[in-house]
Amino acid sequence: MTAASxxxxxxxxxxxxxxxxxxxxxxxxxxxxxxxxxRMVILEREHEIARHQSGHNSGVIHSGIYYLPGSLKxxxxxxxxxxxxxxxxxxxxxxERCGKLIVALDxxxxxxxxxxxxxxxxxxxxxxxRLSAAEITDVEPGCQGVAALHCPSTGIVDYREVCxxxxxxxxxxxxxxxxxxxxxxxxxxxxTTQVRxxxxxxxxxxxxxxxGLWSDRLAISAGEFSGPRIxxxxxxxxxxxxxxxxxxxxxxxPVPNPELPFLGVHITKLINxxxxxxxTAMLVLARDAYTSWRINPRDLWGVLxxxxxxxxxxxxxxxxxKEIFMKIFRGQLIREASNxxxxxxxxxxxxGESSGVRAQALDRDGTLLDDFLVTEAPGSVHVRNAxxxxxxxxxxxxxxxxxxxxxxPDWKFHESx
Length: 417
Ligand SMILES: Cc1cc2nc3c(=O)[nH]c(=O)nc-3n(C[C@H](O)[C@H](O)[C@H](O)COP(=O)(O)OP(=O)(O)OC[C@H]3O[C@@H](n4cnc5c(N)ncnc54)[C@H](O)[C@@H]3O)c2cc1C
Fold this sequence. Notes:
Blueprint: E1 12-18, H1 22-34, E2 40-44, E3 60-61, H2 72-91, E4 95-96, E5 100-104, H3 110-122, E6 129-132, H4 133-139, E7 147-151, E8 155-157, H5 159-172, E9 176-179, E10 183-189, E11 192-197, E12 201-209, H6 215-221, E13 229-239, E14 251-254, E15 266-269, E16 275-278, E17 282-283, H7 297-305, H8 307-328, H9 330-338, H10 344-347, E18 354-362, E19 373-377, E20 380-385, H11 390-407
Parallel strand pairs: 1-2, 1-12, 2-9, 5-14, 12-20
Antiparallel strand pairs: 3-8, 4-8, 5-7, 6-7, 10-11, 11-12, 13-16, 13-17, 13-18, 15-16, 19-20
């Protein structure tokens, strides 16, 4: 379905979801599981689902090792991974529990590996094992390091396919999709939330913003002026040339910098059989910077005037320079990855790169928000930080959001109908 006609009764719904990424689609599905008769519309600025983060990621079903015990990410990643596997089983979506290694290259990384192991155990990650240097090659014959964590429950899937199936399920249950419908503002009057787009106005009981890279602007348009801003971080991938002997059995990750919410350049097997290196993490000046060096004046201004950007840049300028270096000299990315898998150097990479842009929330004081953040305004709920592992966690995050909707007196709209 395309744009709606302005101001008609067909523009009245119980719930509007803004954003047809994996989080918006999962929230819609969860709402319907609780309230089967709900009249729901999904408003999406692009012309199809999963055009942004949900369709441009590493395709990893994370296990929950990294995240601070007790955080939303820790709980919802562990729960979400199992829900994602079950969903894939239900709809015969291909996936593989190929497992993952987090590899320490030298003794200086051991304390951080210890911390990850501690977190993984506290978070309830199943099957986690510590490996010695010799044991690493039992799992990944080509890999080298001084120690590693092996997580057999990590898997791979194509999240674009997951979104496609979610979309089909929702359509079959009567959910209305409007594509090319960029929401510009939300306003609560009486018991109704007015959702204005460039084409029409929708009157709904509750609006749920799942707008990823533009989630801060949507929340601000609903009156939530405080809170973090989205800073886009582009992640580029290189694809290895096919090899007669499989290069990897699963996934190989570095020990990440604990101060940053990125996992570092990893070697990832995709569900289609390709093996990719990446993603990098470069701050970019457009929220849809899928081509290198793209600049959007509004996004540029947003980055420059947010005090957090300057504080972050002062703290991590070395990391920033390294990321730009990796962008310009792709050999650097290959060198990084070959520290773990030396055969990569002989194998070579295909020409060109793929990329995704992370919606990472940054506080005014320069702190990159580590956890998921969901906020509530009158008549609307906003997912304000859902970076990785939100694809893995999406079905569990949706449960969390719907549980909050149930307890709030503001959202009894549908019971009064
Ligand atoms: C490079 C990269 C690698 C990643 N790897 C992994 C991984 O391996 N595993 C994992 O679990 N997670 C991974 N992630 C994270 C994961 O992809 C995201 O956390 C997840 O897709 C977020 O989903 P979302 O629905 O919130 O956002 P999105 O998928 O970005 O969807 C938001 C939607 O909202 C729409 N929208 C925005 N504003 C408006 C508006 N005003 N009106 C209408 N529509 C609007 C957008 O067009 C978009 O379709 C990765 C992310 C990136 C970028």
